Amino acid sequence: MKDIKSPKIYLLFLTAWLNSFVLTAQVTYSADVKPIIQKHCISCHHPEGPAPFSLESYADVQKRAKFISYVTGQGYMPPWKADSTFQHYRNERILSANEIQQLRKWVETGTMMGSELEEGNGSQRIEIYRKPTVKLEMNAKFEIPSNNKDDFRFFYLPTKIKSEKYITGIEFRPDNKRRVHHSRLMIDTTGTIAGIDGLSEMDTAVYRYQNVALADEFLYGWVPGNFVFRFPKGFGRRLPANSNLILNMHYAPSVLKEEDRSGVHLYLTEKTNISREVKTYILRESNISNQPFEIRANEKPTFYMSSGVLDKDLSFITVQPHAHLLGKSFRAFAITGDGDLIPLVKINDWDFDWQTTYEFKQLIHVPAGSVIVMEGSYDNTSENPRNPYFPPRDAAYGWRTVDEMMNLIFYYVDYKPGDEKLELEYED
Ligand code: HEC
Q1: How far is the CA of 50 from the centre of ligand 1 (A)?
Q2: What span, in angstroms and rounded, lies between the C-alpha atoms of 106 and 264?
Q3: Which end of the chain has the smaller Cβ count within 10 Å, N or C?
Q4: Per-residue confidence (pLDDT) for residue 10, from 0 to 100
Q5: Ligand 1 site: residues with CB under 6 angstroms?
Q6: Is 346 within the bounds of a domain?
Q7: For the segment 1-16, what is each residue's pLDDT rounded down to a tens digit?
Q8: What 3-state class would DSSP assign to 196?
Q9: Which of the 8 DSSP states describes residue 127?
Q10: Domain end among 277, 309, 340
Q11: pLDDT band at residue 22, thresholds of 50, 70 and 90?
Q12: pTM for this structure?
């Protein structure tokens, strides 16, 4: 009995008492739930956003309260795939244990509204979705073939921009969200490729265009899970004079007759507002050391490693791993000449539908001579629920969803002393 007087025990009682107070406190929409939804959900769940429904009003949220509690409890929403014990990101979307509990408690106690609400008529929506410098759209509605096959197309989007600009933000806007599977944006300044508009990749007429030197072969890669993207203030990617965009679109197979007219929003500025020019560094399948990149059916797991050596000091802004349906887990890091390890990204449960451009909180300085390493594992057995074939079939490199890829894409700027400590500012 002596023990009970020890300060430790008192502290335990005190904590238990405080906890019981917190647990019995009322959880209301206006005081507790709304701030969580505003912070973590509205960026996608607003009327023009990528999610299928809005969560802007009490009614929107109340109607789906149980479902919201379930998907947040499961960690399915907000969607976030990168392991936060490996590296943190500016655009990280993770609910705290307390926030998840608040949502659950709210459902259990009857989804109370709390104090009288001023229902914003969309005023809290993220304004940056509204203010691009130019809004581009495919020239016409495209009728997606209904032959149940993957369809790869080129589209040509004239910008009518005659002088050099710098891109500070980009948003690819899929129109038919069920069918648009990915899109790669390239830049042509020659004006000689306009005839590619609407051509299938399988069409031999494409050969007429493929020898034209493009001004930018990889301006941006959109995959499901990627939304509006902004560079830090003062950073920009060059858009040369007379640029036109080429979209390399991939439509998912279907037997339905459907149309698409996707678009691109560009946020532009003048060179005088830009202090750092953004470029891309990519590890491709050709960087894989244990070739061939062939993922045999029913073999598990299949590991690949790719690497590249930097010939100058770079400051990474973002990292984006890319693979298809057989991908299982990925890890990327840099090893400096001094043997230091710089964590870049780790994904423990790869999901093709939730690929993201991961934005580092601060610039990551990777010195010249460093090796960038990407490790990937693939599961081509029938235990992989995303496997497109039952029974599984051998897979190898290719652009179709049923083929595989292993890419690591960085936006970077050339390193400047002090970059490690640079406070990045964003307009949103
Ligand atoms: C990055 C964008 C994004 C964010 C942030 C986001 N969602 Fe979603 N949400 C989606 C998309 C897209 C879908 C539809 C696709 C799907 O279900 O996977 C969806 C689907 C859902 C569904 C339906 C799930 C189903 O199985 O049909 C619920 C419920 C939901 N979200 C709740 C939330 C809540 C609550 C939050 C915040 C805690 C949130 N979402 C944050 C994009 C987002």
Answers
A1: 9
A2: 39
A3: N
A4: 63
A5: 40-41, 43-45, 50-52, 64, 67-68, 71-72, 77-79, 93, 95
A6: yes
A7: 444 456 666 666 666 5
A8: helix
A9: G
A10: 277
A11: low
A12: 0.85
